[in-house]
């Protein structure tokens, strides 16, 4: 005979009785099987603890634990948190010094009006072996978090000091003098200079020698972040506040740099809308993250750098004049390498010394240094490093010679007479324009916006010219 189907409706008619019975039964089972039970009042004082649990914490008589603040008996207890916030902690791992870890559940106890009157805690396991995969994952995540935090802290420390800025000629000495003065002050610093002239080196050195040295140095390259993500990157965002690949909330660079220095590289790339937000932060020292209704205060010193002609951008309306004046307090211009060739011997020596560890000890002949003086160095010290590094890789000479360097230097940028003999004016101008745009794009790493900015023309104009001249990026 098939059994009659269960009459759920009839059962649930007495739902309250079932619930009472289930609560009682669950409580008895938990008490019997778990490693320990504790109940605290609304001030997180113990009102009840079972004998086994009390004994684990050194209280032979559970009565002697009654009335004590819970942490006095169970040192790592989070019961106070549950009482305070009224939220259950369904599963947690409690690590007690010198003891096995415990898996615990903590639940708030509420009266009929919903008021929290205490909390009950169950220690479910002290033999964590049965949970070893979860615990192993938990420990691994904790280790990963610790190492990520450590490398983040490292990344926020300055990499360079004033000694890293090589050069003792007049121009380099003046740059270092101004930068040392800037380190003594707290106003914004504006670093102007071609690419590869050491603006980032100086920004690090200024921070390292300033009163903020113990606090983070956070860097952001405006040209490297898509415009749509820049606001969240700078000011932070609550989850889902912006549409990007990542819709999670994020802490902005301003908040990360609190108390320290924020190095904003390629400042000229900051879109106009964000320029006004940045200006407000500089004036009021506070800002609102994207999608948040709260205002955050941040005490941050700005060091801005750009290789674009910022003053020209102000004139053309691409950069706000008020922000420019706000930033243009302590301005330092890093000279291009071709204007300080007197520093070439020292720079070569420093670069070769830096590479000695990985590439072996190498020197450079006086004739080779002399040869380097005549080059235009559009990529400045960065390009010098690159040329020397490649020369070392390709040559076996312990002392680099002219013939090791000559093939590595872009002869197109040497100051040679223009080959215009067979060309009419129109085609010579076209050839010149093509080379100018190609060089600008190359030195801007293919970024049309940056190339246009450096040339002082609009992005749309650049694209039009590129199409007309058949230039691909
Ligand atoms: N005066 C200097 N002394 C020693 N190394 C330098 C100097 N200037 C630049 N360098 C080296 O050249 C490279 C580029 O320097 P840095 O990044 O500071 O230039 P930058 O002006 O910030 O360039 P960009 O505008 O492209 O960001 C780095 O490897 C740096 O160590």
Please give the oligomerization state of what you see. single chain
Spatial ordering of strands, largest sheet: 2-1-5-4-3
Helical amount: 40-55%
The CATH class of the largest domain turns out to be Alpha Beta
* Broad structural category: alpha/beta
Distinct small molecules bound, one entry per kind: adenosine-5'-triphosphate
**CATH architectural group of the largest domain:** 3-Layer(aba) Sandwich
Q: How many structural domains does the protein architecture include?
A: 4
Report the total helices.
20
Protein name: Transcriptional regulator with PAS, ATPase and Fis domain
Organism: Silvimonas terrae
GO molecular function: ATP binding; sequence-specific DNA binding
Keywords: ATP-binding, DNA-binding, Nucleotide-binding, Transcription, Transcription regulation
Describe this entry's structure for a reader:
It contains 20 helices and 14 strands. It is of the alpha/beta class. It folds into four domains: 26-131, Beta-Lactamase; 162-335, P-loop containing nucleotide triphosphate hydrolases (Rossmann fold, 3-Layer(aba) Sandwich), CATH 3.40.50.300; 339-413, Helicase, Ruva Protein, domain 3, CATH 1.10.8.60; 425-469, Arc Repressor Mutant, subunit A (Orthogonal Bundle), CATH 1.10.10. The strands form four sheets. Strands 2-1-5-4-3 form a five-stranded antiparallel sheet, sandwiched between helices. A five-stranded parallel sheet has the order 7-8-11-6-12. Strands 9-10 form a two-stranded antiparallel sheet. Strand 4 and strand 5 form a beta hairpin. Helix 7 crosses helix 8. The longest helix is centred in the first third of the chain and has 24 residues, at 132-155. Bound molecules: adenosine-5'-triphosphate.
């Amino acid at each position: 005979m098939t059994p009659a189907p269960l009459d759920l409706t009839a059962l649930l008619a007495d739902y309250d009785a079932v619930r009472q019975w289930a609560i009682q039964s669950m409580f008895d089972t938990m008490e019997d099987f778990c490693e320990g039970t504790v109940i605290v009042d609304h001030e997180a004082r113990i009102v009840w603890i079972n004998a086994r649990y009390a004994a684990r914490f050194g209280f032979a008589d559970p009565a002697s634990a009654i009335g004590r603040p819970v942490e006095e008996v169970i040192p790592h207890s989070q019961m106070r948190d549950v009482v305070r916030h009224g939220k259950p902690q369904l599963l947690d791992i409690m690590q007690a010094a010198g003891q096995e870890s415990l898996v615990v559940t903590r639940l708030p106890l509420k009266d009929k009006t919903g008021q929290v009157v205490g909390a009950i805690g169950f220690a479910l396991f002290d033999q964590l072996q049965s949970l070893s995969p979860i615990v192993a994952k938990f420990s691994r995540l904790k280790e990963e978090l610790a190492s990520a935090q450590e490398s983040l802290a490292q990344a926020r420390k300055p990499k360079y000091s004033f000694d890293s800025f090589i050069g003792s000629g007049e121009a380099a000495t003046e740059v270092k003098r101004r930068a040392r003065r800037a380190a003594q002050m707290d106003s914004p610093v504006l670093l102007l200079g071609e690419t590869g002239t050491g603006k980032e080196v100086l920004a690090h050195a200024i921070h390292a020698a300033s009163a903020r040295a113990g606090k983070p140095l956070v860097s952001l390259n405006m040209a490297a972040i898509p415009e749509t993500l820049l606001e969240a990157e700078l000011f932070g965002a609550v989850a889902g506040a912006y549409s990007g690949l990542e819709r999670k909330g994020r802490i902005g660079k301003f908040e990360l740099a609190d108390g320290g220095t924020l190095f904003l590289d390629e400042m000229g790339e900051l879109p106009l809308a964000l320029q006004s937000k940045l200006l407000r932060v500089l004036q009021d020292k506070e800002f609102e993250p994207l999608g948040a209704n709260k205002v955050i205060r941040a005490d941050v010193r700005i060091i801005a750098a750009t290789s674009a002609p910022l003053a020209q951008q102000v004139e053309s309306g691409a950069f706000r004049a008020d922000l420019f004046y706000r930033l243009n307090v302590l301005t330092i211009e890093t000279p291009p390498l071709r204007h300080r060739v007197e520093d070439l011997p020292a720079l070569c020596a420093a670069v070769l010394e830096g590479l000695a560890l990985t590439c072996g000890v190498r020197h450079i002949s006086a004739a080779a240094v002399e040869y380097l003086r005549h080059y235009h160095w559009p990529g400045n010290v960065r390009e010098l490093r690159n040329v020397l590094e490649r020369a070392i890789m390709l040559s076996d000479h312990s002392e680099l010679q002219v013939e090791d360097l000559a093939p590595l230097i872009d002869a197109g940028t040497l100051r040679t007479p223009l080959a215009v003999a067979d060309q009419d004016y129109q085609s010579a101008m076209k050839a010149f324009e093509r080379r100018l745009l190609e060089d600008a794009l190359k030195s801007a790493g293919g970024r049309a916006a940056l190339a246009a900015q450096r040339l002082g023309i609009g992005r749309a104009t650049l694209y039009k010219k590129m199409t007309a001249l058949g230039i691909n990026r």
